[in-house]
Every structure is written in structure tokens, then in C-alpha cells.
UniProtKB/TrEMBL annotation:
Enzyme Commission designation: 3.1.1.31
Family statement: Belongs to the glucosamine/galactosamine-6-phosphate isomerase family. 6-phosphogluconolactonase subfamily.
Gene that this sequence comes from: pgl
Protein known as: 6-phosphogluconolactonase
Keywords: Hydrolase
Amino acid sequence: MKTPELDLPSGIETHFSETPQEAAQQLADTVAEFLRGRLHSAERASLAVSGGSTPLPFFQALSRKTLDWGRVDVLLVDERWVDETHEDSNTKLVKENLLQSNAAVAQFLSIKQSGSTPEESLGAAETELTNLMRPLDVLVLGMGNDGHTASLFPDAPELSHAMNVKNRDALAAMTPPSQTHERITLTYALMREARFIALHLKGNDKLETLKRACSRPNDVLEMPVRGFLKSGLRVYWSP
Ligand SMILES: O=C(O)[C@H](O)[C@@H](O)[C@H](O)[C@H](O)COP(=O)(O)O
């Protein structure tokens, strides 16, 4: 495979694979290894994952890894405001694909608590995350072609609040007009301090978006993913 040309900021590691399965497997190997390492020195480890379509093979590969899953807290970086039985539910995706096999005994911390809007459930969702140690251990992000990541959407009126580095809340309610469902997301301040951050991408369109994001790295409100394009990030990509 011809290695895609990308002018990423220095210190970003790239892993380009021929197939989505290969990328998923590589990412699962690395995440499992990192979690094992954390569990040597800490009582619990945390794993924050994205929804959408890209992570499915990664979830399946990771769920079969051998590690002390009973000491791992799994949470979503964002959720759509739908019922858990809805096809668009990220919780459903994670429960059906990641919290299976060896990973079935991991503890799932739900960022979607009861309430008719994300705003209404924020208090209960923050409570759910009270015992989560900061910083997060592992954060696996996706990216949309508008430059969003997690539910940090460029058109959300709440974006500056959710991306404010001084905002110590774990969560923010998001109502991007471009999206069918309202959303709840981890805040940028919480996510950016994670010990291990990966951006998992599939498709040539995502590479083009990444190039666009690299062209003007400082305008994070235009493309929120820019906030993560820093030394230490690991990019996993396949066509
Ligand atoms: O719930 C979500 O929608 C996400 O967590 C979101 O940030 C996702 O990661 C990107 O939109 C990429 O989605 P795809 O993997 O479907 O391209």
C-alpha cells in the first residue's frame, strides 16, 4: 500500500493499515497492552470509546483480549439522545460488541441517565462519573468530515463551553442543528488530558478531512478535532 502523505504536527504517530480489520486489530493490541500496563500500577483503569461505525471491528477484537477486565471502567465519549434499543444508540453498540467475551465483566459507566434532554440528565451523569479517576487512561476518538470528534460539533451552540479548557465538568449537553439527535459528550478538558489518545479513522474522505484539519491547526472551534492533533496522538487509519 502506498503510504498516504500527511503533514501532521510533529510527535503524532501514524499507523496505516491495508484493511479496517488490520487497523482494528493493531489498535486493540495496543490498547490492551496499555490497559494491562496501567493495571500493574493502579487499582482500576479507564477506557473511553467512541460510537459511530468505525469502531465495530475494534470493539470485537478488544473484547477478546485477555486482561483483568473486572478492574476496567468503560464509558462512551458521547451518546445520542435515543433509547438504548434504538439503532443509533452508542450504548447498544458498546454493549453488543465490546462488553462481550472476556470484556463482559468490565464496568460500564453510563453517560446517558434518565431525563428528557441531555441537559436535564447532566447532574445524574456527572454523578455516575464521580469515582472515575482523572486523567482518563485510554481515549479512542473518531472524527466526522465536518471536523467533529466525540460530540464536539462545529455548529453546536454549546461548543465554546464544552471546549473551554477551564471547564472542569466531565460532561456537556450538545444540540448541534446538523444532527438528528441531541447529544451528551465528555468535555474537551477531560478528554485532552487522557494518558493514551488514539484517533481511529476509516476511508479516504477522513484522510482529506485530516489534511484540512492540519492546514489551520489553531482554529479549534471550526474543526474541534484540531484540539487533539498534538504530540502523543496515535492515528490509526485504513481505507
Ligand atoms: O457518536 C458519534 O457519532 C461519535 O462518537 C462520533 O464522534 C464519531 O466517532 C464520528 O462521527 C465518526 O463516526 P464514524 O465512525 O461513523 O465515521
